[in-house]
Structure formats: structure tokens, C-alpha cells
User: What shape does this take?
Amino acid sequence: MLLQCESSNSLQVSIHPSASIGTSVFLDHATGIIVGPLVVIGDGVTIMQNVTIGRRAETPDRAPRIGAGVLLSTGAAILGDVSIGDFARIGAGAVVTSDVPGGCTAVGDPVRLTNCPEPAPA
Assistant: This one.
């Protein structure tokens, strides 16, 4: 906890020790990043500055799950019991409180989905 506190103060990044982080996660301009308890982050995720990933008061025992290859743009907030699918993109300043399917782009507050891949024909 002391190491986490010191790194948080000096680096302006707070990653809770109970968060699960995959390999090759890239913290671009690592400033103002907050990763709360129980968060799961997949492999190859890019996290820009001022991103918050955490739980909500309504679901204190459930945290966001971020898939592989996801881009979390500047100032995005991922809050609550949500799942972000593989290779999704979260736009700058987006507030995500519901699931985002893989490959989609989520923008705005409240978040809306754009550029979702079309389902394969049957």
C-alpha cells in the first residue's frame, strides 16, 4: 500500500492493487489515470490521460471489464458493472455506464454507439 501511495503521488496515476491488468497495456501520457478496485483490463489496451475506470455506488462489488485491444481516449470515464468488448474505442470525454460491444466506437455523455461492425450474413 505504501508503494501504491508513493507512486500515485509522484506519477499522478492511481491503480488499485486488486485491479487485474493484462500484458502490453500502454498508459499514454500517464497522468490523472484512476483504475479502481476489481477492474479487469485485457491485453493490448491503450489508456490516454485523465481516464477513470471504477465502480459505482449501486454496484460496489462489480467493476468494469475492458477487453483486449481497446482504446480509452482522453478524459473517458468507464463506470459500474459494464463490459467493453475487444477492439472497441471509447471517445474523448465519453461517460460509459452501459456495455459497449466489440469493435464499436462509443462517444458522448450519455454515450452513444457508432461505427459498429455489421453482423456477418447468415
